[in-house]
Design goal:
single chain; about 190 residues; alpha+beta; Nucleoside Triphosphate Pyrophosphohydrolase; 2 domains
């Protein structure tokens, strides 16, 4: 597949100013004034986020482990791969390793990096690093204070079907299921 006018330099916007509108524990919000490639002045509302890590534990029988939790923006319980926010000065691998144990009780002797995703690049800087965890050992979980989770075990093939049908709605979970399934030849 070819590209027409693939010179990225012709697409860049020049930031003229930036104003912080909100500073929170999880993210900050800024409004930027930019000059577009055509010379027009425009505003960009941007959510600045440290990023996150998502890890899919898969056992020797190709069962995957997920968490269910209430998600306030959607007012419902959602099925997701274990994930969390990267803390200051924390690597994505350290975050993923911490989250798998906190949320599922597993430790993994084999963690494979699957890549990164930008969920909403139109307005948010969050990048989520994706991992596959195998060679699992159960040690017991310890969710964060105020985090209420249910653990769900299902065959990876069933999880892939749920991702393909849209029953699993969370984008990071859909993608990590797809990438893990490919690793196992599914």
């Amino acid at each position: 597949m070819g590209q027409i006018n693939c010179n990225d330099d012709l697409l860049f916007e020049k930031t003229l100013s930036s104003d912080t509108k909100f500073e929170g524990k999880v993210f900050n919000v800024i409004v930027k004034q930019v000059e577009t490639p055509s010379g027009r002045i425009a505003s960009r509302e941007v959510v600045l986020h440290h990023g996150g890590a998502c890890i899919l534990p898969v056992d020797a029988d190709l069962n995957a482990y997920f968490v269910k939790q209430f998600r306030s923006p959607f007012e419902k319980v959602m099925l997701e791969a274990p994930a969390g926010k990267i803390e200051t000065d924390e690597s994505p691998l350290t975050c993923a390793t911490r989250e798998i144990t906190e949320e599922t009780g597993f430790i993994s002797k084999n963690i494979i990096e699957l890549g990164k995703m930008s969920a909403t690049p139109g307005y948010c800087s969050e990048q989520i690093s994706l991992f596959l965890a195998t060679d699992l050992e159960y040690k017991g979980g310890n969710p964060d204070e105020g985090e209420f989770l249910g653990l769900v075990k299902m065959p990876l093939t069933e999880a892939l079907d749920l991702a393909l049908s849209g029953e699993i709605e969370d984008a990071k979970t859909q993608l990590v299921i797809h990438l893990a399934s490919r690793r196992f030849g599914i």
